[in-house]
Amino acid sequence: MRKEYLENHAIRKLHIGSGGAILDGWLNVDLERENNRVVYMDAGSPYPFPENTFDFVFSEHLFEHLNLDQQLVMLAELRRTLKPGGKARIATPNLDALLAIRGNDSPVVQEYINWSAEVFFPQKIAMLGEAVKNEVFVINNYFYSWGHRFIHNPQSFMAIARKMGFEKVRPVRIHESDDPVLRRLETHGNVIGDRFNEMETMVFELEK
């Protein structure tokens, strides 16, 4: 399917870590194939594509599942396989936003903490009660659940992206882009709600 996609698409678009969120017109790849529209690929290892293959790459809530060495490989491989002028869009959790809930008693943060406890710790609530509705549980859950390995803030992400050869790195808002191909791609808000997704997620566009 990989070869067929490359042969049949003049504008080539790679979706890394697609899971079940299949994008039409994109080559959807993942470490685990949920259906036959997904091609196996390890995002943290060398990619099975020649240089200057893709016009666009998109990845949402995958980067944080890689350790730092794997993240560096991913960034290097993105730069290698993008065409000159090609763009990558990466959405990933924002460490600053996560740490900002510490000691924050604003209504939206309290709602987020309560939601996180009720969704991810229902059995612990039954055992421990309201004590679970605390930022300590939220922060530990975010670091140690779902296979998260290394979570960045904006400064650290942009620093390593530039070190790996991307001179043009800029933060953008969820769903928004100067390039119409890269608009309205994120689906994480469908899982946790748009408001909490806005709190958790940072998005960057990198141009070769």
Question: Class of the largest domain in CATH?
Answer: Alpha Beta
Structural class by secondary-structure content: alpha/beta
Taking the alpha carbons of the first and last residues, their distance comes to 26 Å
Based on Cα principal axes, name the global outline.
Answer: elongated
Any idea what the CATH architecture of the largest domain is? 3-Layer(aba) Sandwich
Written overview of the protein:
The chain has 208 residues and is an alpha/beta fold. The protein folds into two domains: 2-94 and 152-207, Vaccinia Virus protein VP39 (Rossmann fold, 3-Layer(aba) Sandwich); 97-143, no CATH class. It has helices spanning 2-8, 68-81, 95-99, 107-120, 122-128, 135-144, 154-163, 188-192, 194-200; strands at residues 13-16, 27-30, 39-40, 54-60, 82-93, 168-172, 201-207. The chain has a seven-stranded mixed β-sheet. Strand 4, helix 2 (68-81) and strand 5 form a beta-alpha-beta unit. The longest helix is centred in the middle third of the chain and has 14 residues, at 68-81. It is elongated, with a radius of gyration of 18 Å. The two termini are 26 Å apart. The mean pLDDT is 95.
